[in-house]
């Protein structure tokens, strides 16, 4: 692995990111980053699909079990504009 360092503010953040990603790909399939990336994302997509199906089933069950609402339509009087909704990348949560 070759690493080129430039004069930027986040050199160490980028370096750690490259090291972690390289180690992950080497663990998936050593020596071939392209094949490892394809295999890695294929597995992620399969697991993501299964998680979405599971969560969807849980949500349907909870709605039927606890909320028991019919198919009613309702209007939100003044919905916010989607362009106005922003969540800062770094946000502080008080738990």
Please describe the topology of this protein:
Elements: H1 11-28, H2 33-67
Give structural notes.
The chain is mainly alpha-helical and 95 residues long. It has a domain at 11-72. The protein contains two helices and no strands. It has helices at 11-28, 33-67. Helix 1 crosses helix 2 (33-67). The longest helix has 35 residues, at 33-67. It is flat. The mean pLDDT is 80.
Determine the mean pLDDT: 80
Give the topology string: H per helix, E per strand. HH
Radius of gyration, Cα only, in angstroms? 22 Å
Major sheet: none
In which range does the helix fraction lie?
A: 55-70%
Question: What shape does the CA trace take?
Answer: flat
Low-confidence stretches: none
Oligomer: single chain
Find the structural class using helix and strand composition: mainly alpha
Range of strand content:
under 5%
Question: Counting H and I runs of at least 4 residues, what is the number of helices?
Answer: 2
Tell me the span between the first and last alpha carbons: 41 Å
**Strands, total number:** 0
């Amino acid at each position: 692995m070759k690493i080129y360092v430039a004069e930027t503010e986040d050199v160490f953040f980028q370096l750690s990111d490259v090291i972690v990603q390289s180690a992950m790909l080497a663990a998936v399939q050593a020596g071939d980053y392209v094949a490892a990336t394809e295999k890695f994302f294929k597995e992620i997509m399969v697991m993501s699909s299964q998680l979405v199906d599971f969560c969807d089933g849980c949500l349907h069950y909870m709605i039927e079990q606890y909320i028991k609402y019919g198919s009613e339509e309702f209007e939100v009087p003044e919905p916010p504009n989607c362009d106005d909704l922003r969540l800062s990348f770094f946000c502080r949560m008080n738990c």
